[in-house]
Design a protein that fits this description.
The structure holds two protein chains of two kinds. Chain A has five helices and five strands. Classes of the chains: A alpha+beta, B alpha/beta.
Chain lengths: ~140, ~475
C-alpha cells in the first residue's frame, strides 16, 4: 500500500552506543512525513526506551515500525529470557538491571512505564525462556 | 528580510563542484548542480562549516564592510568576547576598547558586559521555571543552534531559554544610551557588532526571538583585526581610558563552557562542534539528560573562538582566556543609571518544518515509500558524485523531482554495461551471418566494439577490486 510504510531495524545485544539508532531514523522519517511534533516526541521516547530494554535484557532483537496516516505501530520482538512478572515490570522504579548497567546510567526501572505513558496502547506477549513481543500504538 | 536568510554565499568562479562541502554540511543543505555547490536556503543554518572546509575558498560569509560607518552620525562598536582572545599577550581588554575608539568609533559597548546581565537573568529564569519544562534548559546564545532546533528538533523548542543573546541586549542598551547622550534619532546611530561568525550576520538580518535586531551592522573580526593591531600598539604604554565593564563571567562567554559556568550551577553540559551538538540534540530528544539543568551548545569547535571569521586558532584563543581573566573580578554586572536591560525574548521561536517530502501527509507517505525503494536500488557508496551528499538524499531528491536515477554514476555504469552486453549479442549475430560478416562497415564496428568492451572490463575489474 502506498500510504503505509514499514521499517525494520535490528537491535544488537549489549551495544549501548547503538541504542537510539532506530529511534533516530524513525524520528527523521516522521519529520519528513509532516507528523506533528508532539507525536514524534512520544514515538522517540517509547522507541528509545524499547531499544534500550532490548539491548540490556533481551539479547537484542528486531523492531518493526508500521506507519500509516492513522497510526504508528511499533513491534519489538526478541528471543530473550521473557518477563516473569509483567505487573511488577510495569511498576515505576522496578528494575532487574545489573549494577554495571546502572553505572552506565540505564536501568532506572522507568523503561516500560515510560513506554506505556507515551503510547495509546501497549501489549506485551511474553514466554519465559522464549522471548517477548511488545506492540505499541500511537495514534496520529 | 526573508525568515530563511542565510549568511553563506558562493563564489561561482572559484567553485569546482567537488564534494567537500556537500558531504560536510550538517543539514544536507548543499547539492552540486551544473558543477556548482548550490545552497538550499531553507536548510542552511549559517554554521559556516562549508566556509571552513572548502579547499577552493569558494564559500564565503556575507557581512558588512567597515566603510558603512559613514552611514551614521554616531557609531558604537560591540566587540564579541572572542575578539580579545585574538591577540598575543593582551593583558587588558581596555587596550582593545581604546583602540576601537581611536579607529573611529564614537563609543564601545562590550558584549561581555551584556553577557553578564544575561547570565544573571538566566540564573533567575532557570531557578523560577526549572520544574515547568520536561528537561534541561537549552542555551539560545548561538543563533545557529536556535535555527537548527527550529527546523529539526521541534520537540526541543519548549526547552529553549527564552532570553535574548548577549549581542541583542548589548545593542539595545548601547543604542538607548547613545540616544540619551547625543540626542540623535535612532537611525543616525550605528550599532556595529564585531563578529566571530556568519551566524550572527544571519541573526541580525533575520532575527530569532525578536521582531527586529538593534544591531545595525555586523563586521567580521578578521577585517577589524589588522586595523586594531596598529591602534593597539599606539595605545599600549599610554595613559588610556578605563572603559571595560566586564569580569570573568562575561569574558568567558567567548569560549565553550563560559555561558554554562556563568550560571553557577553544577548540573550542566557544554557541547561544541556541529557534529557533537547534533548528537546531543538527538539524545535530548530521547530524554536522555533529565538530570541536567542546562545545556550549552556551540556550533563551532571551542565555542565562539572557533568561528570562521576569527583570526586565531580556537584552542590558542581558549588558552589565552585563562590568562586574561585571571585577575578580573568574577562579574561586574554593570548597568548605567536609569537603564533597564531588556532580556526576555519578545517573539516566540517557531517550528519551521522544512524536511517534509510532500505538500501534504498523503503525498509525503507515497514519496517516502518510493524513496525507500529507490534507495535500495542505489549502490550505497555515498560518493556524492550525483550531486547529493549520500544515496538516501539522492533517493529523496528523485521523489521530489529534483534529480534522476541516471545522476548516479555507478547506476549509469551498470546501464552502460548492459548496453555493451546487448551490443555484443547483436554484433555476434551479424558476424555469424556470412552475408554481413565480411562487409567493411562491420569490421569497423567490431573494432570500436572491442575497444569499448576492453574499457568496460577494466572498469568492472577496478570496481570489484
Amino acid at each position: 500500500m502506498e500510504d503505509s510504510i514499514i521499517l525494520k531495524y535490528i537491535v544488537v545485544d549489549g551495544e549501548f552506543q547503538r541504542a537510539g539508532e532506530a529511534s533516530s531514523d524513525v524520528k527523521h522519517k516522521l519529520k519528513q512525513l509532516g507528523v506533528p511534533a508532539d507525536i514524534i516526541r512520544k514515538v522517540a521516547i517509547a522507541m528509545y526506551e524499547g531499544e534500550v530494554n532490548m539491548v540490556i535484557h533481551a539479547n537484542g532483537g528486531e523492531i518493526t515500525v508500521e506507519i500509516n496516516p492513522e497510526q504508528i505501530r511499533m513491534i519489538l520482538e526478541d528471543v530473550g529470557p521473557g518477563i516473569p512478572d509483567i505487573e511488577k515490570a510495569m511498576t515505576a522504579g522496578f528494575s532487574t538491571a545489573s549494577d554495571a548497567t546502572r553505572n552506565l546510567g540505564f536501568g532506572a526501572g522507568m523503561g516500560l512505564p515510560n513506554m506505556k505513558k507515551n503510547t495509546d496502547s501497549l501489549d506485551i506477549e511474553t514466554k519465559l525462556g522464549e522471548g517477548t513481543t511488545i506492540t505499541m500504538v500511537i495514534k496520529l | 528580510m526573508d525568515q530563511f536568510y542565510h549568511a553563506v554565499t558562493l563564489n561561482q568562479s572559484l567553485c569546482k563542484g567537488c564534494t567537500t562541502c556537500l558531504q560536510r554540511c550538517p543539514t544536507e543543505a548543499i547539492r552540486i548542480r551544473n558543477g556548482k555547490a548550490k545552497i538550499n536556503h531553507e536548510l542552511c543554518i549559517s554554521c559556516g562549516q562549508c566556509i571552513r572546509v572548502c579547499p577552493h575558498h569558494a564559500k564565503m560569509a556575507e557581512y558588512d564592510s567597515l566603510t558603512t560607518m559613514r552611514d551614521f552620525d554616531y557609531t558604537i562598536a560591540l566587540p564579541a568576547p572572542s575578539l580579545y582572545l585574538q591577540f598575543h599577550n593582551l593583558n587588558d581588554p581596555d587596550i582593545v576598547l581604546n583602540a576601537l575608539i581611536s579607529m573611529g568609533f564614537d563609543a564601545v559597548y562590550e558584549v561581555s558586559a551584556a553577557a553578564e546581565l544575561v547570565s544573571e537573568a538566566s540564573r533567575k529564569y532557570i531557578e523560577a521555571h526549572k520544574d515547568e519544562i520536561p528537561g534541561p534548559f537549552i542555551s539560545t546564545a548561538c543563533p545557529t543552534m536556535v535555527r537548527l532546533i527550529s527546523i529539526r528538533f521541534p520537540n526541543l523548542l519548549p526547552l529553549l531559554l527564552p532570553l535574548k543573546p548577549p549581542i541583542e541586549v548589548a545593542a539595545d542598551l548601547a543604542a538607548r544610551n547613545a540616544m540619551a547622550k547625543t540626542g540623535l534619532p535612532r537611525e543616525k546611530i550605528g550599532v556595529f557588532f564585531i563578529s566571530p561568525c556568519p551566524s550572527k550576520v544571519a541573526y541580525v538580518r533575520a532575527p530569532l526571538g525578536v521582531e527586529k535586531s538593534e544591531v545595525d551592522r555586523v563586521v567580521p573580526i578578521k577585517d577589524v583585526y589588522p586595523l586594531l593591531l596598529a591602534h593597539m600598539k599606539a595605545i599600549s604604554g599610554t595613559d588610556y581610558k578605563d572603559i571595560s565593564k566586564s569580569g570573568k563571567i562575561g569574558i568567558s562567554w567567548g569560549a565553550r563552557g563560559g555561558e554554562a559556568t556563568g550560571l553557577l550551577r553544577e548540573s550542566y553540559l557544554a557541547a561544541d562542534g556541529i557534529e557533537n551538538v547534533m548528537k546531543v540534540l538527538e539524545d535530548l530528544e530521547d530524554q536522555k539528560f533529565q538530570e541536567l539543568d542546562f545545556v550549552e551548545l556551540n556550533a563551532c569547535n571551542g565555542g565562539c573562538v572557533g568561528g570562521v571569521l576569527t583570526v586565531e586558532n580556537a584552542y590558542v584563543a581558549e588558552a589565552r582566556l585563562k590568562k586574561l581573566r585571571k585577575y578580573m573580578p568574577v562579574s561586574v554586572n554593570h548597568v548605567n543609571e536609569g537603564e533597564e536591560p531588556l532580556i526576555l525574548n519578545t517573539k516566540e521561536i517557531e517550528y519551521r518544518p522544512v524536511f517534509n517530502l510532500g505538500s501534504n501527509m498523503l503525498e509525503s507517505f507515497a514519496r517516502l515509500n518510493k524513496a525507500e525503494r529507490i534507495e535500495k536500488q542505489l549502490p550505497g557508496l555515498d560518493c556524492g558524485l550525483c550531486g547529493a551528499p549520500n544515496c538516501k538524499a539522492l533517493a529523496e531528491d528523485i521523489v521530489k523531482g529534483e534529480a534522476s536515477e541516471t545522476d548516479c554514476i555507478p547506476f549509469l555504469r551498470e546501464k552502460l554495461h548492459n548496453i555493451t552486453t546487448e551490443l555484443e549479442a547483436v554484433s555476434k549475430k551479424l558476424l555469424d551471418d556470412p552475408k554481413t560478416a565480411k562487409s567493411e562497415g562491420m569490421v569497423i564496428v567490431k573494432e570500436y566494439f572491442d575497444a569499448i568492451k576492453k574499457d568496460m572490463v577494466s572498469l568492472d575489474n577496478k570496481n570489484r577490486g
